[in-house]
Amino acid sequence: MRQAVRFSVEFIRSEVSHRLESGKLHRLQPLSSLREFYSAGEWQSICEVLELHDIQLHDPVCDLLGSEEWSND
């Protein structure tokens, strides 16, 4: 029997940040672009977490991160 995978919004933000830094995602891509990195069950859990936080899949990836600090500012 498979157990449901649960993610936190903090974990998702961390994953997004890591993928941005590694160049696997771009800041203006929709959050739905994350789907390619997860299994169907994991993606369903991520969608549920995003929905609980009123975050839409068509929102750009950068919206999930909120304010960011830049080292060259």
Overview of the structural elements:
- The protein has helices at residues 9-21, 40-52, 61-65.
- With 73 residues, the chain is mainly α.
- It is globular, with a radius of gyration of 13 Å.
- The mean pLDDT is 87.
- Helices cover 42% and strands 0% of the residues.
SSE topology sketch:
Blueprint: H1 9-21, H2 40-52, H3 61-65
The value of Rg in angstroms is 13 Å
Poorly predicted ranges:
none
Element-level helix/strand string: HHH
Task: Give the number of DSSP strands.
Answer: 0
Helix count?
3
The largest pleated sheet is described as:
none
In short:
This protein is mostly helical.
Structure characteristics:
mainly alpha
